[in-house]
Amino acid sequence: MSQEQLKTLTVINRFIDKSISRQQAAELLGLSTRQITRLKKGVLTSGAESLIHKNTGRKPAHAVSDETKEAVLKIFSRPEFSGVNFLHFKDILLADFGISLSYSALSSILKNAGFESPKKKKIRHRTHRRKRKPHPGQLIQIDATPYEWFGGSVKYALHGAIDDATGQVVGLFLTQNECLYGYLETMHQCCMDFGIPQTVYSDNHTIFRSPKTGKLTVDELIAGKTVHLTQFGRSMHELGIDLIFAKTPQAKGRIERLWATLQSRLPVEFAKRGIKTLSEANRFLETEYRKLFNQKFSVTPEAESIFVPLSKGIDLDSILCVKHTRKTDAAGTFSFKNRCFRILDRGFPIINARREITVLINPRFGIRVAYNGKIYDTIRYLKPQNKNASKKVPKKVRTAVEPHLQLRHSSDEWKAIWWMEDYNLSLKFLYELFFEKQQSAS
Questions:
Q1: Which site from 206, 271, 313, 398 is most exposed, i.e. has the minimal number of CB atoms within 10 Å?
Q2: Cα 338 to Cα 323: distance, rounded to the nearest angstrom
Q3: Nearest to residue 159, comparing CAs of 194, 195, 187?
Q4: Dist CA 115 CA 110 (whole Å)
């Protein structure tokens, strides 16, 4: 008998020999007086054995076998699962190893072995959350978060976009730092896979909003001065997407909570697959992980989708890019960032001298020119560079830009065809446009 059962037997015996009353026995054992009567009857009829539960010493029919427990602990001890939370590990056991366990059973196995989940449930005060939008595509929340996605101490910025109505992740892209390129690629995934949303909800980062917005003086307004859109803002405007700005992180809580989930789960998924580079990670995020995540976490919307499908004639790459205006010279060339480019006619009419053109820059296609509704390719026109042009290339330029070029270009093609100049100088050119200081569209 256990110590608790011995205590119960002692009190019931004292009640039987009338040393204590029924009410006193009930108070000592924390039971009702009717239960005390039942216990007395059992002791008088069957003795002390009546206090021992009939299932004592029996193994429950639904108990997890020792072999399964050993297999679970062996899997959990693998290095790639060192930071996994219990709920995520439950999903992994079923998907990868065919082991089906309830959360409570798995939690008991791991806790009895001395493990604790790194993501414990916290008791929070119940707060009112903004109701979801009824239509998919009505509101997309967009943001980026730095984190050690590959383990170690190096942080990379994950850019993401989530649909407010369904909780579906519509875009994910990793870069060295939070930058224009990451957001353009995220929106490219959204528009290609889901359609063009009605509204994008962001913070006040200068990628989205010029720091001069709302800060012009009365004299400047009278003089007709305006604030240019940022390159991202201009892209959204051309696609017909409204851009609104949150004043606090709590205002766009949907994507803030997404980061907590991804920071817990993504490093484990990367470790499982041996993913350690940006190019491998982005390929996995775009082609596989978004679908897996949406299948598990998305919800059914209240109403039909209002994502706008891409029209057949639209060139998305020519919108989600950096645009600047320049003028051609008599030779049909133009200058951009101390480099000279010649416009290729490709069957189109040749652009005359001193015509205003729009220069389109995107790592997907290099540099193109838009004029009178037509898109022209360009090649590098080799002539002496500006003597004042800096040729110094910081080390951070290569680490920020180069991993993304390998997704679509080999280094030989990049050096021989696109820029026809020193490779490092080409990387610097892209870094200044996409990865460093954000400039307003002109």
A1: 313
A2: 16
A3: 187
A4: 5
The mean pLDDT value for 104-120 works out to 84
Residues 6+ apart with CB under 8 A from 276: 150, 270
Q: Give the contacts of 331 (CB within 8 A, at least 6 positions apart).
A: 342, 353, 381
Residue 339's identity, in one-letter code, is R
Q: What are phi and psi of 342, to 5 degrees?
A: -110, 135
CB 199 within 8 A of CB 141: no
Q: What are phi and psi of 17, to 5 degrees?
A: -85, 15
- Structure token pair of residue 34: 């009717």
> What is the residue-wise DSSP string for 150-168?
TSSS--EEEEEEEETTT--
Instruction: Give bridge partners of residue 369 from the DSSP assignment.
Output: 359, 376
Helix (H, G, I), strand (E, B) or coil at 320: coil
Residue 180 to residue 157: CA distance in whole angstroms? 12
- Residue 208 confidence (pLDDT) above 50: yes
In order, the DSSP letters of 348-389 are SPPPPTT-EEEEEEETTTEEEEEETTEEEEEEE---PPPTT-
Whole-angstrom distance, CA of residue 374 vs CA of residue 244: 31
Given a cut of 90, whether residue 131 has pLDDT beyond it is no
| Strand arrangement, sheet containing 199-202 | 169-175, 156-163, 140-147, 199-202, 242-245
Phi, psi of 25 (to 5 degrees): -60, -40
Around 139, how many Cα atoms within 13 Å sit in the side-chain half-sphere? 20
Q: Amino acid letter at 136?
A: P
SS3 247: coil
What is the rounded CA–CA span in Å between residue 437 and residue 180?
9
Residue 250 per-residue DSSP state: G
The residue that leads in pLDDT, 433 or 316, is 316
CA distance 233 to 247: 17
Residue with tokens 């366990």, as numbered in its chain: 101
β-bridge partners, 380: 341
78, 110, 170, 311 from 265: Cα distances, Å: 16, 18, 18, 36
